[in-house]
Specification:
Elements: E1 2-4, E2 9-13, E3 19-23, E4 32-37, E5 47-53, E6 56-61, E7 72-77, E8 85-91, E9 102-105, E10 108-112, E11 118-122, E12 129-134, E13 156-159, E14 162-166, E15 172-176, E16 184-189, E17 203-207, E18 210-214, E19 220-224, E20 232-237, E21 259-262, E22 267-271, E23 277-281, E24 289-294, E25 302-309, E26 312-318, E27 330-335
Antiparallel strand pairs: 1-2, 2-3, 3-4, 5-6, 6-7, 7-8, 9-10, 10-11, 11-12, 13-14, 14-15, 15-16, 17-18, 18-19, 19-20, 21-22, 22-23, 23-24, 25-26, 26-27
């Protein structure tokens, strides 16, 4: 989910529901559906992630929770955001495990392809052009892994010429020369206390020499990437005791998926499944301290995504049965007290 502040609009990927265009208001923050880009307009593929750059919305296509199939990328003109126009839908020539995170830098766009690694697109022309695909090392941290320990490229972010990849069971990966035709996997990190358990690196954001990673039922990790080839743990916020022998992905109360960092306040926000929203004070960088929370598991509502907009947070809720109960789908706006 991303916010277009110039037009007071939200764009939310909703899998088989396509992309919802949601109108917000400065005077009344209640979100309202303004338009929907249907699945049929997106090549018949589910919309999984969106990224906004100026007047263009990029949509990752291909549900990564279903069987292997086509995946793709859509380019949508949102000059008039309430009446978006799909300009191009690129689809793969081979079946994959879907598409996940998106990141853009220097006229190139990277897309996570789950166990198939990464795709990088050249955005310099009016048409999407695939520049390269790149397979990450799936034999780290476990040789010849089988589900649920197969790495899947999920969340992505560019920083200082590097591409940081939350590689699900494969930990954090750092890619050097990501936009070249020959990217190099330069750095790797996993939490050693979780080596005997499934890990779930879902999302990553960076601030200077620090990477913040959403690790599903293992909470949040703070990682020093001063030397990108040797990421090192700084702190681990592990409220649901993921490393305890009895704890599993299915039994955990919380599940961190999408995260966002507010550099002005030094606060990290996380959509946390049935726990809904958590706010962590990471201003000291050496620790993470819970500074706020919204929602509770008794609500039987679960969040998947979020985006920041000044003093507002927009939360995306999903219907689900596992790993958490979610009985409502929609968007909620919260105001942050400072």
């Amino acid at each position: 989910m991303v916010k277009d502040p110039a037009q007071s609009l939200l764009y939310a990927a909703q899998n088989e529901g396509g992309v919802a265009v949601i109108r917000t208001s400065k005077s009344n923050a209640e979100p309202r559906l303004a338009f929907r880009i249907s699945k049929n307009q997106l090549g018949g593929l589910d919309a999984t992630t969106v990224l906004l750059r100026e007047h263009t919305l990029y949509v990752a296509l291909g549900n990564f929770f279903t069987a292997r199939g086509k995946f793709g990328l859509a380019k949508v003109d949102v000059t008039n955001g309430a009446q978006p126009v799909v300009r191009q839908v690129w689809t793969s020539e081979f079946a994959g495990h879907g598409a996940s995170g998106l990141a853009e830098s220097g006229g190139y766009l990277a897309m996570g392809l789950m166990s198939d690694g990464l795709a990088v697109f050249d955005l310099s022309s009016t048409k999407l052009k695939l520049r390269t695909t790149f397979r990450l090392n799936n034999n780290f941290p476990h040789a010849t892994p089988r589900e649920p320990t197969v790495p899947h490229a999920r969340g992505l972010t560019y920083a200082d010429g590097m591409l940081y990849v939350a590689d699900d069971a494969g930990g954090l990966r750092v890619i050097r020369n990501p936009n070249s035709k020959n990217p190099v996997e330069d750095g790797r990190y996993v939490q050693e206390a979780m080596l005997d358990k499934p890990q779930a690196f879902n999302s990553v954001v960076t601030d200077r020499h620090t990477a913040y990673v959403g690790v599903d039922y293992a909470g949040i990790e703070i990682i020093n990437v001063t030397d990108p080839s040797r990421p090192k743990s700084i702190a681990w916020w592990n409220p649901w005791k993921a490393d305890a022998p009895e704890q599993t992905w299915f039994s955990s109360v919380g599940h961190v998926n999408q995260i966002a960092f507010d550099a002005n306040s030094g606060t990290l926000y996380a959509a946390a499944g049935a726990v809904q929203l958590i706010a962590l004070d990471v201003s000291t960088s050496s620790e993470a301290r819970l500074s706020g929370q919204y929602g509770n598991t008794a609500d039987k509502k679960g969040t998947w995504g979020l985006t920041l907009d000044g003093d507002k947070i927009y939360l995306s809720y999903v219907r689900s049965l596992i790993p958490f109960i979610g009985n409502w789908a929609g968007v909620r706006c919260l105001r942050v007290s400072r």
